[in-house]
Amino acid sequence: MSEQATLGTAVVTGASAGLGKIYADRLARRGHDLLLVARRADLLEEVAASLRATYGVKVQTLAADLAAAGDLERVSKAVAADPSVTLLINNAGLSTLAPVALTTSAQLQSMLDVNINALAHLSHAALTAFKARNRGTLVNIGSVLGFYTLPISSIYSGTKAFVVAFTRGLQEEVAGTGVKVQLVLPAATATDIWELSGVPVSALAEGTVMQAEECVDAALAGLDLGEAITLPSVNDAALLTGFTDASAKLFGASQTSKPAARYLATA
Predict the structure, then answer these.
(1) What is residue 157's predicted lDDT score, i.e. its pLDDT?
(2) What is the pLDDT of residue 206?
């Protein structure tokens, strides 16, 4: 069996630009065949043609709006039905950065539909197939705003908090199996999501924005290292350990039937 056949097909959502386009390049370079998903068929085919010519891998495209129920169902079925799929990069995401009162209902719904609903359904489709074969890797792209909220990120942070909690639960589900689940939490990264969010990247503090190529390369290095959670921009890994340990300790402290002493009426 060739190395390429062994690697199988990688599915990348949001593959026409930004992190998704770079993931597609890096995975093709590694020898994966690809199924690329994004809304614009013309941009997808441009990416696919370049990857076929450069790396000689098989690249399929599937134009779909993951906020649309019918399109999401088509992509979910494609992922679940293809036994060659060994990797899913849930990268597609939307961001509107503004106070809730200044966010339209349509913008709110789009973030819920793509960042939560699409990611959850595609994770379900992939993991069901991966667990049946006891092989496969799911990568969910979250954000550092999944554990920290700004005055303009209430909705976006809420959606990414779902990604954090959901993916951590999936990791517990597949523990001890041949299935891997990685949670990637980028900080500010130089992609077009900033312009689309309403906050131009030029407004961010100098030295805080990572290049998209470096973000993806770090995320893939973390995957190779077997990391459950990869924070591409955090140098001190002990900070993550402290954070997860504190969360577990807080949960443990909550497991009692008695109200905390400070809530009990004093005589």
Answers:
(1) 98
(2) 72
This prediction has a pTM of 0.93
Determine contact, residues 46/24, Cβ cutoff 8 Å: no
pLDDT, one tens digit per residue, over 138-180 is 999 999 999 999 999 999 999 999 999 999 999 999 999 999 9
Closest by CA position to 193, among listed 121, 110, 126: 110
Q: How many distinct structural domains can be found in the chain?
A: 1
Q: In this structure, how many other beta carbons lie within 10 angstroms of the beta carbon of residue 145?
A: 23
Tens-digit pLDDT profile for residues 210-249: 999 999 999 999 999 999 999 999 999 999 999 999 999 9
Token pair of 224 as six digits: 């190779």
- CATH code for position 82: 3.40.50.720
Rounded CA-CA distance 159/114 in Å is 9
Residue 156 known to be catalytic: yes
Which of the following is catalytic: 55, 148, 156, 263?
156
CA 85 from centre of chain: 17
Range of the domain at 39: 3-263
Paired with 246 in beta bridges are none
d(CA 167, CA 171): 6
- Measured at the CA of 120, the angle between CA 108 and CA 201, to 5 degrees, comes to 50
The strand pairing partners of 85, in sequence order, are 9
